[in-house]
Amino acid sequence: MSEDTFRSVEIERTSLGQYVVRNIRGGSMSMGTGEDGSFTPVELLLAAIGGCTAIDVDHITSRRAEPTQFSVEVTGDKVRDEAGGNQMQNLRVEFTVTFPSGADGDRAREALPRSLQQSHDRLCTVSRTVEHGTPVSIVVAAGSTGN
């Protein structure tokens, strides 16, 4: 893979069930089991799905008019499948977006459905990856010890 396609985060354990996620640009956030205010991995998955499409839609529609309201709710059900494994089902991304009155707002409102479809069909890396079912490899790094 080339440098411009590669993405990564590092996760460091801070205590039992508590972690800090860091990106290469210096950003960080807490992640945990949900026993405190930190995000759980499932919540981060939902945020990534909604956030990816939100960014796409915002960039497309705000060229026409600044929204007066822009919120996204992402929901789903965490269930056990037939094999006994956990997974998310019934994923739903609901946008509530309003634009001001006038010609610019009208153009933004007109662009909204098309921008949602474009994000879903080709722009949003996260939801497209989830829908396509990309395999995940789990490995132990060289030099790790299990003693």
Overview of this structure, please?
- With 147 residues, this protein is α+β, with helices and mostly antiparallel strands.
- The chain has three helices and five strands, in the order βββαββαα.
- It has helices at 41-61, 103-123, 125-132; strands spanning 9-15, 18-23, 28-32, 69-80, 86-98.
- The strands form two sheets. A three-stranded antiparallel sheet has the order 1-2-3, with no helix packed on it. Strands 4-5 form a two-stranded antiparallel sheet.
- It starts with 8 loop residues before the first strand and ends in a 15-residue tail after the last helix.
Overall mean confidence score, pLDDT: 95
**How many beta strands in the DSSP annotation?**
5
In percent terms, what proportion of residues is strand?
25-35%
Low-confidence stretches: none
Can you tell me the overall shape? Answer: elongated
What is this structure, in a nutshell?
With 147 residues, the chain is an alpha+beta fold. It is built from three helices and five strands; from the N terminus they run βββαββαα.
Keywords:
147 residues, alpha+beta, two-stranded antiparallel ribbon, elongated
Protein topology:
Elements: E1 9-15, E2 18-23, E3 28-32, H1 41-61, E4 69-80, E5 86-98, H2 103-123, H3 125-132
Antiparallel strand pairs: 1-2, 2-3, 4-5
Helix pairs in contact: 1-2
